[in-house]
Automatic annotation (TrEMBL):
Comp. bias (Acidic residues): 88-101, 372-389
Pfam families: DUF2461
Annotated stretches, region: Disordered: 1-148, 364-389
NCBIfam families cross-referenced by the UniProt entry: TIGR02453 family protein (TIGR02453)
Source organism (scientific name): Zasmidium cellare ATCC 36951
Protein's recorded name: DUF2461 domain-containing protein
Highest taxon above the source species: Eukaryota
Biased segments, Polar residues type: 23-48
């Protein structure tokens, strides 16, 4: 007698077992659908490309030391960092079965997409990631960081930044930038306090109102002002300290020319102080001719070639009338900037500008304006860049 195959159905009862239960039946509630066998292809790492070479994301940094809220206010960035976490299992489950990640090894998808083969050339196992930590800030070394002073590392960073003036480099050296920025802000805060003592008209404004980068400009209303400024900038071998009116608008140039025309003695006296002559005018002697000559030389870059409109060619102060800038200043070596001695030196130089800044403000922005609208119109006309032969 032939043996009966167990795979064949014998009757309606066996056939009914393969029929789908009617909707709403009690048999459906107890029937469990066998899960589909999952493909064994590992998840593709988001930090590698399909060319098989190691590719590191330059924006990744050590998550164990995230930036503080204050640090994220940097001007180079919004403080956002790339995530170094792997995709979770839920994300893998939701991927399309027809995607490249779900394609079996050695086969191409229907769309002809490149097949990612994990671990074939990177040397890393499936699902592994390569994370390169951003460099830490340089250690202070033998010179500790001190509030109100410029640390040598700050000057070193600015030199390296100039040599690598790329955003990608700055991203990788974010810790050094933030350390240098913090050092500079501490210096500006301390210098603001000292300057407000030397000139009571200068308010104690926040750092952001006087410092746009590694430079600072103080005035009665901050760095964005029509008042005369005290100014300092730092850079390796290019630091500079100065004060006065830089590229003032035409009405203020007209007021300066009117003041020189009617009473040039006031300007000359403001420039005749011992510290100003020694530090900013080449050490000239205290006489009007020498002081004026040195001052004109330092502001001659954009001066008029001939006499300004409305003034005679034989005016005794024609050299002063030709000017459109009214500044004095000097370069600083790196040794004159860093450390406690540098901070003290800069404070002394900024304080020496007080007579000059006060004089300029008394001309261009007097506390009590004495001119009416007609005089204002006349000032604007005289402030034209037109010159007469």
């Amino acid at each position: 007698m032939a043996r009966r195959s167990g795979r064949l159905s014998s009757g309606r009862e066996q056939v009914a077992k393969h029929k789908r239960a009617a909707s709403g039946s009690t048999e459906l509630a107890t029937t469990t659908k066998r899960p589909k066998k999952q493909q064994a292809t590992p998840t593709k790492s988001q930090y590698f490309e399909g060319n098989g070479h190691d590719v590191a994301d330059p924006e990744l940094e050590d998550e164990s030391d995230p930036p503080t809220a204050d640090e994220t206010a940097s001007e180079f960035g919004d403080g956002s960092e790339a995530s170094a976490e792997s995709p979770g299992p839920d994300e893998d489950a939701e991927e399309d079965e027809d995607s490249d990640e779900a394609t079996p090894r050695g086969k191409n998808s229907a769309k002809g997409a490149k097949v990612w083969k994990p671990g074939t050339k990177t040397g890393l196992g499936p699902g592994k990631q390569l994370v390169i930590k951003k460099p830490k800030a340089k250690p202070a070394g033998k010179t500790p960081y001190t509030d109100g002073t410029i640390h040598p590392n700050t000057m070193l960073f600015l030199g390296e930044l100039k040599a690598n003036n790329e955003r990608s480099w700055l991203k990788m050296h974010d810790a050094e930038f933030r350390q240098a920025e913090k050092d500079w802000h501490s210096f500006v805060e301390t210098m603001t306090q000292k300057l407000t003592i030397a000139d009571e008209t200068v308010p104690e404004l926040p750092v952001k109102d006087v410092s746009p980068w590694f430079s600072a400009a103080w005035s009665r209303t901050g760095r964005k002002s029509t008042y005369a400024h005290y100014y300092i900038q730092i850079a390796p071998n290019k630091s500079w300290v100065g004060g006065g009116l830089w590229h003032p608008e035409a009405p203020y140039v007209a007021r300066m020319r009117s003041s020189i025309d009617s009473n040039s003695r006031a300007l000359k006296e403001a420039l005749s102080g011992e510290t100003i002559r020694k530090e900013f005018l080449g050490g000239v002697k205290k006489n009007d001719a020498a002081v004026v000559k040195a001052f004109v030389k330092s502001n001659n870059d954009n001066a008029l070639k001939s006499r300004p409109k409305g003034f005679s060619a034989d005016h005794p102060d024609l050299d002063l009338l030709r000017l459109k800038n009214y500044t004095i200043g000097r370069s600083l070596s790196d040794d004159e900037v860093v450390g406690h001695s540098g901070a003290q030196r800069i404070a002394e130089l900024l304080s020496a500008f007080e007579p000059w800044v006060t004089f300029l403000n008394s001309v261009v922005m007097p506390d009590q304006a004495a001119s009416d609208s007609d005089e204002e119109d006349e000032d604007e006309e005289q402030g034209s860049d037109d010159e007469e032969e």
